[in-house]
Design goal:
Shape: globular
Number of helices: 7
Distance between the termini: 47 Å
Bound molecules: flavin mononucleotide
Largest sheet: 5 strands, antiparallel
Strand content: 5-15%
Radius of gyration: 18 Å
Helix content: 25-40%
Order of helices and strands: HHEHHEHHEHEE
Structural class: alpha+beta
Number of strands: 5
Length: 220
């Protein structure tokens, strides 16, 4: 079935070393559509609310389309970078977290600069029934029906030599993205996932806050 040798690793290694790949995306190497299709086929095994499978996956490799999307993304990155919500500004006063935030900002800026050169952009999308509006009562079902599949795509990609990164900047300007791609008003993209072969061989587990800081047993 596979068009690329699957990297041999344990499940725990896969789950702990699937990083946001930005600077290590190989911008010079084409990604076969067949390989993306293979990762998406695996993603289709993810759960959806009521087994509706109301998802769509937009794969963009056309240079003109990528350029248009990348321009929107870069504008959003530049805007966010000037706000207190920017990744590099958060936790700036915490010496244990600031360096990691700063690296993410640097890497994110690189991606924003080079997004149009990434071989493939994947947008996992979800349809909202009824009037097509995302509301407090349907939002968990909505995002919960696409995020597991999107993450499965990223994991399947990782084992086939492809690096990815979850990005959401473009979701804040959905109408603009929708008009470039032409998807319906009741469909929303959950993420924009740059996809390319990664350079180098290995990835390390990321630094995380301790489990005991976020674990609640029986009551909050
Ligand atoms: C909901 C969500 C939104 C994100 N949006 C962006 C984004 O717009 N651009 C970007 O470069 N990274 C984005 N990221 C990636 C995070 O910055 C990254 O996961 C975090 O820095 C931890 O790094 P790691 O994934 O390599 O462990 C996003 C991640 C999530 C889960």
């Amino acid at each position: 079935m596979t068009t690329h040798p699957v990297v041999d690793m344990t499940t725990d290694t896969l789950l702990t070393t699937t990083r946001s790949v930005r600077k290590r995306l190989d911008l010079s190497r084409d990604v076969p559509l067949e390989l993306v299709r293979e990762c998406l086929t695996i993603a289709l095994q993810a759960p959806t609310s009521a087994n509706r499978q109301h998802w769509s996956f937009i794969v963009i490799a056309d240079p003109g389309q990528k350029r248009r999307i990348a321009e929107i993304y870069k504008r959003q990155w530049d805007w966010l970078a000037s706000t207190p919500y920017a990744v590099g500004v958060r936790f700036a006063d915490d010496p244990t977290r600031a360096p990691q935030q700063s690296r993410a900002a640097d890497s994110g800026a690189y991606l924003a600069e080079h997004l149009a050169e990434v071989p493939v952009l994947v947008l996992p999308c979800i349809e909202v029934e009824g009037d097509g509006q995302i509301t407090p009562s349907n939002q968990a079902d909505t995002w919960g029906s696409i995020m597991p599949a999107a993450w499965s795509f990223m994991l399947a990609a990782r084992t086939r030599g492809l690096g990815t990164a979850w990005t959401s900047l473009s979701t804040s300007v959905e109408p603009e993205i929708r008009s470039v791609i032409g998807y319906p008003d009741n469909v929303y993209h959950a993420s924009l996932i740059p996809t390319a072969y990664y350079t180098g061989e290995t990835f390390k587990p990321g630094t995380r806050q301790p489990l005991d800081d976020v674990l609640h047993l029986d009551t909050w």
